[in-house]
Design a protein that fits this description.
Blueprint (H helix, E strand, L loop, with lengths): L6 E12 L2 E12 L3 E5 L6 H8 L7 E6 L2 E2 L4 H5 L2 E4 L11 H11 L4 H14 L15 H13 L5 E5 L7 H16 L3 E6 L2 H7 L2 E6 L2 E6 L1 H6 L4 E7 L5 H8 L9 E3 L4 E6 L4 H11 L4 E7 L3 H9 L9 H9 L1
Parallel strand pairs: 3-8, 3-9, 6-7, 7-8
Antiparallel strand pairs: 1-2, 1-4, 4-5, 9-10, 11-13, 11-14, 12-13
Helix pairs in contact: 3-4, 3-5, 4-5
């Protein structure tokens, strides 16, 4: 199979177990060339394991994965020459300078010394690291190291970029800068597989999004398609007394378009996917009849956070560390 395939990344029946922990459960995925594909899910959902397999850093227990037509098991070198990878933790040498790290990456991509230096200068400037390029990385802050790791992933101008929670550790300004770079890369034809726990990030960057939970794809589509899957609108009700949230949930449960309403207990808020905005009047009537005071009622468009909670029963920032622990123990 050649590189002219429309799918830049193809994953079929991918299975990966760490002892009793099933990180990937016969997962299927296809990423079109020249697009940003977002994998949305909490830690432990299987996102990092998938990225590591596609990057040839981890062998699957079963199934297949291909990058630009090249199998990750039988053609790992061909895959590595076509990808860039930025993981959750900076994979850089702290004893080298920032510039030396980037030039080393360029040489691994088989660039000439002069071209490696030129590419290093280009990405150092792009990520705001030029002023500290000749300092040892051991003197960098966490945010600086994160930006350097991202710069290293782009030094070889790979056609496929794997970004595993790329904005972890970045301040809001740096996060916005990264988003702009990802947009620019996509417009230039680069395929990006992006894992994230940030709902705004997936919504902002990805043309298609897959919601990953317990090693499986719970749902996938565009952000608009996923939002429409849980109901026409979301009824957001803020209660005057947060202590009444449990009673309010019981009163309103059967109004939900799909599952039981989401409760944000600390804020005294209930978010309820409904089929029609007219449900708000019925909700107010029921709460008033039970003597539950309301501070505010608002009809909103569903967010990706609503989508994830409805599909999986837990928030996207939930910390399920079984996968991470298994990865560390197997390393």
């Amino acid at each position: 199979m050649g590189e002219r395939t429309a799918a830049a990344i193809q994953v079929e029946g991918l299975l990966k177990s760490y002892g009793e922990v099933v990180a990937l459960d016969r997962l299927d995925l296809e990423v079109d060339a020249g697009t940003v594909f977002g994998l949305l899910g909490p830690n432990g959902a299987g996102k990092t394991t998938l990225v590591r397999i596609v990057a040839t850093l981890l062998r699957p227990s079963g199934g297949h994965a291909r990058v630009l037509g090249h199998d990750v098991l039988t053609e790992p070198l061909a895959v590595r020459r076509r990808i860039g990878l930025a993981g959750q933790f900076a994979a850089i040498d702290a004893e080298l300078t920032g510039r030396e790290n980037l030039e080393m990456v360029g040489r691994l991509y088989r660039l000439s010394p002069a071209e490696a230096r030129r590419r290093a200068d280009e990405v150092l400037e792009r990520f705001g690291l030029a002023a500290i390029a000749d300092r040892r990385v051991s003197t960098y802050s966490g945010g600086m190291r994160r930006r350097l790791d991202l710069a290293a992933s782009l030094t070889g101008r790979p056609p496929v970029l794997l970004l595993d929670e790329p904005t972890t550790g970045l301040d809001p300004r740096s996060r916005q800068e990264l988003w702009a770079i990802v947009d620019e890369l996509r417009r230039g034809g680069t395929t990006v597989l992006l894992t994230t726990q940030y709902l705004e990030e997936a919504d902002r960057l990805a043309q298609r999004i897959a919601v990953v939970d317990h090693g499986r794809i719970a749902a996938q589509g565009s952000a608009a398609e996923l939002k429409s899957a849980i109901g026409t609108v979301v009824l957001a009700i803020r209660l005057s007394d947060p202590a009444t949230t449990s009673d309010a949930r019981a009163v309103l449960a059967d109004l939900a378009a799909r599952d039981a309403p989401r409760i944000v207990a600390a804020a005294g808020e209930i978010r309820l996917p409904v089929s029609s905005p007219g449900a708000s009047a019925e909700a107010v009537r029921r709460l008033d009849a039970r003597g539950i005071p309301i501070a505010a009622v608002e009809v909103q468009q569903p967010s990706l956070d609503d989508v994830f909670l409805t599909l999986t029963g837990r928030p996207a920032h939930d910390r399920d560390s079984a996968e991470q622990q298994a990865i560390r123990e197997s390393a």
